[in-house]
């Protein structure tokens, strides 16, 4: 279903439309392509899987046993991805790979990080991308070049995000500090710094709304904050049940009016942030949702634990069964 004007009623009608349950472990990361109807997932079974979201079909699966699969995002090309590594980081330094799902080929390695990459973001306007690592650094890269283009040393776990115009990027870190950089001259340092007071937890994730007016912070103790992206004031905040050993993810709807999140008790929640209030709560039979994103151009979101679920507005039709998995490709 294509994206229409969202309202409280449509959000409340969201229900599971398709389920994929053949993953060999927890889904670690997922992402939509910005313009094509495609979704990619990475999971604990070292797989990358490509889905056609218009038809709820799995179209490709590849395995990456040597490096593992952790954070993943699309480049601008519909079959090319950036994926972070889990294994052999200290011996090879190959912390990130640029790869083609079309022919299961690694196009380039990016070396530099000494520990796991926990945040990954592609520029919406060019071949630049950013990675934040537990080695307390953020590195800036260009898909066309092996060498790191810039490095920022920080305190604690960093989370990174570009705004939708690609002109600004944000880095969030422990203590609720958010630093904003001009992506064209980031070496001059941040042009603004916001502090979310009262929460000393590390930031798990940061996102900009599509209109650039808001930022969404999720902390490792399952607090969610919506900030004004221009001045840093807290618009609203939500506290959710703790989720032992699992970090939850929150997401904006494409219009920036709603925020959705999982919770440690296995429920899913949606809030209207213009008039802060909870508009929907769904019981969820797949456990604690670790990955959650709303599709860029559709009335659809996906939620994942060790099971992937597609959610669409329920108009009284029976849920569509998931297709059987696509043929497996040669492992790497």
UniProtKB/TrEMBL annotation:
Keywords for the protein's UniProt record, in alphabetical order: Nucleus, Repeat, WD repeat
Highest taxon of the lineage: Eukaryota
Gene3D superfamilies referenced in this protein's UniProt entry, alphabetically: YVTN repeat-like/Quinoprotein amine dehydrogenase
GO cellular component: Set1C/COMPASS complex
SMART domains, sorted: WD40
Primary location recorded for the protein, binned into one broad class: nucleus
A GO MF label: chromatin binding
Repeat positions for WD: 20-61, 110-144, 240-281
Localisation: Nucleus
Family matches, as SUPFAM superfamilies: WD40 repeat-like
Similarity remark: Belongs to the WD repeat SWD2 family.
Protein name in the entry: Protein ANTHESIS POMOTING FACTOR 1
């Amino acid at each position: 279903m294509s994206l229409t004007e969202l309202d409280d009623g449509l959000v409340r009608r969201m229900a599971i439309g398709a389920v994929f349950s053949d993953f060999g472990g927890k889904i670690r990361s997922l992402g939509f392509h910005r313009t094509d109807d495609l979704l990619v997932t990475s999971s604990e079974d070292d797989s990358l899987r490509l889905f056609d979201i218009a038809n709820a079909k799995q179209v490709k699966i590849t395995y990456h046993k040597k490096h593992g699969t952790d954070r993943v995002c699309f480049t601008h090309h519909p079959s090319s991805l950036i994926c972070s590594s889990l294994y052999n980081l200290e011996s090879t330094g190959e912390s990130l790979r640029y790869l083609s799902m079309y022919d299961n080929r690694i196009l380039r390695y990016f070396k530099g990080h000494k520990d796991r990459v926990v945040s990954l973001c592609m520029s919406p306007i060019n071949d630049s991308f950013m990675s934040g690592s537990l080695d307390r650094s953020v590195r800036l890269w260009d898909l066309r070049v092996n060498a790191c283009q810039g490095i920022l040393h920080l305190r604690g776990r960093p989370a990174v995000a570009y705004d939708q115009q690609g002109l600004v990027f944000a880095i969030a870190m422990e203590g609720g500090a958010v630093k904003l950089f001009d992506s064209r001259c980031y070496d001059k340092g941040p042009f603004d710094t916001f502090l979310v007071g009262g929460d000393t937890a590390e930031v798990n994730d940061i996102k900009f709304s599509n209109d650039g007016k808001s930022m969404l912070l999720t902390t490792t103790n399952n607090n969610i904050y919506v900030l004004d992206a221009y001045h840093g004031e807290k618009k609203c905040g939500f506290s959710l049940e703790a989720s032992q050993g699992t970090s939850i993810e929150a997401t904006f709807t494409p219009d920036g009016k709603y925020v959705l999140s999982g919770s440690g008790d296995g429920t899913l929640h949606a809030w209207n942030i213009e008039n802060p209030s909870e508009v929907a709560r769904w019981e969820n039979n797949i456990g604690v949702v670790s990955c959650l994103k709303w599709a860029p151009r559709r009335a659809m979101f996906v939620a994942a634990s060790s099971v992937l679920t597609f959610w669409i507005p329920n108009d009284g039709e029976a849920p569509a069964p998931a297709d059987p998995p696509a043929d497996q490709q040669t492992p790497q």
